[in-house]
Amino acid sequence: MDECIHGFEPGMCASCFPPPEPEKVAIRRAPKAPKTNLRTPAPGTTAAKAPEPRASNLPKRIFHVTHVRNLPAIIASGELKPSSLSAEQAEVVLASPITHELRATAQATADASVLECIAFSLTPRATWWSLVQDGAAGPTWSDDARRALAVDFIVLGVDIPAVADRLIVTDGDAAAMTTAVGSTPDAAKRMLARAAMDEAVMQAAEALVPGTVPLASVALVAVANDKRRDEVKRALADAGLKAKVAVYPPWFVPTPIA
Fold it and tell me: Where's the active site on this chain (predicted)?
């Protein structure tokens, strides 16, 4: 399959394959309706219904960001693990202890806390990732996060079908009490549809997967520069892994939060 200059397959790179302009729909003038009371709908009319997003517009991948120094432990275990299992092995932990505590007490499902799920985003332009790139200020983040450079991170992309049967999707911080959680396949799909129609939700949403995800399920690893790409490609090849490694600098600079 042909790739773009950034190493992505057709359709996955927003720069080389920008989304098509929406088709213009001709507007027909309706005949004037008889005057009615503004509080009462005119006879035969119904409330306008928001258009349903097409399946082709729904997110196709979820993204897990980690520091490159955590990659050797991930490769050694052969899988991505939730923070509850990997925090002691990780060289660079981004979340502060208070964040871990909040996520440990928030339930993603009846059987798993948020901390017992692998945290993904629906977009590599996620709100939390922009905050880390901007300096990781505040009690949410660790000293490791504040010291880290954006170019030292990698973005792991997993195709949604690989985890669809376990996927949980939220519309914001999974540990926040006001966050809506889609914890069944149908509910998760509805949350994906909601995110597809609202960029603010897309950036704020979390995608959670209870348990572990085999590293072989990682379809893409995005990095900030050529030096990092060569390093990551060697590490993956030595482990017999075939994930595509692509250089895509825009994912490693802060973006405005919608």
Answer: 103 (proton acceptor), 206
